[in-house]
Design brief:
heterodimer; A: Phosphatase 2c, domain 1; 25% strand; B: Rossmann fold; 6-stranded mixed sheet; 4 helices; globular
């Protein structure tokens, strides 16, 4: 049997018509001098209807610039779009001493490929952007984590420092309290006190001690401001009085004591801190009380049975605060203390009480409260604080509360 | 007849090659991205040293992860513009890779690097150090924006002059 041709003429004719119909084809023949020698096919479909034989090919068909002679034969470029707006597969091959250029329309294939590629690139760009954003977020997250770690470290350090300082302040407060004298309940003298520090370390201190068998020193002082500095100075001044550590000073003479104390605690040497003080000496033999004061609230003397503010004797001094002027002289005052009288020494925190409506407790009002208290030893001071607390309302007092009560 | 020179636009996909040609040839810009398949051919006349030169611009489909730029498209070119997207630093690596392959395939040709999309300041990711490194390697770098037209005319003109000088 004779083998059948690979493609029968009928099939070849059909395919020829199909390809030419579906994909317009144009061709060019170019000689070795790059002159166009012939052209045919669907030239207009590829925008080549104006070309002329006998003219240089690259000048008329610009995409041939640089392609002649072809680097290889055949040489093929896919989807070449010219200004005609169509895409064509470009085939160049050498045959018969000429270069043949064949353009096969690929517009449909090009458009289909473009739609797929457009979608793919769109997705790729989105994915690239997403990766960038994730990277930025991760970097930001890392930075935040680092910052958070650093803040945690700082916080722990601050907490530790705060705890240490709180402990030191507590120790300081305990020391301030430790130098206060113990209450006394003797036949000839009863002394007790109440000391309520405010939230901060304060500058209040007080004391009493026998100078000799007959003379009792009594004092209360208040250093300006609050905090460690005020507390240190108040402790130092109280210790000075307790240990009678002022040179060449008769501690039975209040004016001399304040004069010497003024020189020892000049504010220019004390970081601009100053203090107020009331200092008295009770002679139990004569029952005379000599006292001097520097800017301090008066001591209050209540005769036995006193029950009104009018019966309260205010033991005031006239001198200003201590430590402001060098060489300042102080004046001593004197009064007689009746048997069974009560004497109160205090700091201003006792009566400078702010009420819930914002107004301040009047000093006379405070005297009235004090006078109406029934003498009952230390319970009397508890009762006084209870009344003041009721007037003040909830929350800590603004200042230290210090009061010493004597029954003489 | 004016001198004709084939110039190729090369780079990663979506760096703005087609937009640069549109800006240069037609003075227009569209922010709608339309990917290039194969190659688009355009033409523009320039004057170099008092002579008219016809630039035949081959805007070649960009390179992606799957398909590389076909260097056969570059055959017969007198020079090329290597386009980088200033908002995508990775496109610098693609440009460097293309440059190496083109040089291996067709030899040394004049080229200029275009750092495109200069108008997108908030997304700009190519640092001054990046640019300095390219220039240190002997590359001519031009900042461009197909959107605003910044640097476009200058970039094509610079390449045309280098092409004519190296002829």
């Amino acid at each position: 049997m004779t083998p059948a041709p690979a493609v029968p003429p009928e099939v070849a004719e059909y395919l020829h018509g199909f390809v030419f119909g579906e994909r317009p084809i144009a061709w060019l023949a170019i000689d070795s001098a790059q002159t166009l020698v012939a052209a045919g096919g669907a030239l207009a479909a590829h925008g080549l209807d104006a070309i002329r034989s006998g003219q240089p090919a690259p000048e008329q068909v610009c995409f041939l610039e640089g392609l002649l002679p072809p680097a290889a034969s055949p040489f093929r470029l896919q989807h070449v779009q010219t200004t005609a707006g169509r895409a064509a597969d470009l085939h160049l091959f050498a045959a018969g001493g000429r270069v043949w250029v064949v353009l096969i329309d690929s517009t449909a294939e090009h458009d289909a490929a473009q739609r797929v590629q457009q979608k793919a690139y769109g997705m790729t760009l989105l994915s690239e952007r997403e990766a960038e954003l994730i990277e930025e977020l991760e970097a930001a997250n890392l930075e935040l984590t680092r910052t958070y770690g650093a803040l945690e470290e700082s916080r722990a350090e601050l907490l530790s420092t705060n705890q240490r300082l709180a402990k030191e302040l507590e120790e300081a407060a305990n020391y301030v309290r430790s130098i206060l004298p113990p209450p006394v309940a003797a036949p000839t003298l009863t002394a007790d006190w109440l000391f309520i520090p405010s939230t901060e370390l304060g500058g209040d201190s007080f004391g009493y001690h026998w100078i000799d068998d007959e003379h009792l020193a009594l004092y209360v002082l208040d250093v300006s401001g609050h905090g460690v500095g005020a507390a240190l100075m108040s402790v130092a001044a109280a210790n000075t009085l307790r240990s009678e550590a002022l040179p060449n000073t008769d501690f039975r003479a209040p004016a001399a004591v304040l004069g010497a104390l003024n020189q020892a605690y000049l504010m220019e040497d004390q970081n601009n801190l100053f203090l107020t003080i009331w200092y008295g000496v009770f002679d139990r033999r004569t029952r005379r009380l000599t006292y001097a004061s520097a800017g301090h609230p008066p001591a209050l003397l209540l005769p036995h049975g006193a029950c009104s503010a009018a019966q309260v004797e205010q033991l005031r001094g006239r001198e200003p605060i201590l430590g402001v002027l060098s060489g300042m002289a102080f004046t001593a005052h004197e009064c007689r203390v009746p048997h069974g009288a009560r004497l109160f020494l205090m700091t201003d925190g006792m009566f400078e009480i702010r009420k819930p409506d914002g107004s301040m407790l009047e000093f006379d009002e405070f005297l009235g409260v004090l006078a109406q208290l029934v003498p009952s030893g230390s319970a009397e001071l508890d009762r006084l604080v209870h009344v003041l607390r009721a007037m003040h309302g909830a929350g800590p007092f603004e200042d230290d509360l210090s009061i010493v009560r004597f029954e003489l | 007849m004016a001198l004709q020179k084939k110039i190729c636009m090369l780079g990663a996909f979506a760096v703005g090659k087609t937009s640069l040609v549109r800006r240069y040839v037609d003075s227009i810009f569209s922010d709608r991205y339309l990917t290039t398949v194969g190659v688009k051919i355009d033409k523009r006349m320039v004057t170099v040293g008092g002579s008219e030169v016809s630039l035949i611009l081959w805007d070649i489909a960009g390179e992606d992860d799957i398909s590389q730029v076909r260097t056969s498209y570059v055959r017969g070119a007198a020079g090329y513009l290597l386009v980088v997207d200033g908002t995508r630093p990775g496109t610098i690596d693609v440009a460097q890779s293309i440059q190496r392959r083109v040089e291996a395939e067709v030899g040394e040709l004049p080229f200029v690097v275009l750092l495109n999309k200069r108008d997108l300041q908030s997304l700009w990711s190519v640092s001054a150090e990046h640019i300095a490194a390219l220039e240190f390697a002997g590359w001519t770098v031009q900042l461009t924006s197909a959107c605003s037209g910044e640097g476009v005319e200058e970039a094509f003109q610079a390449l045309a002059e280098r092409v004519i000088v190296s002829r």
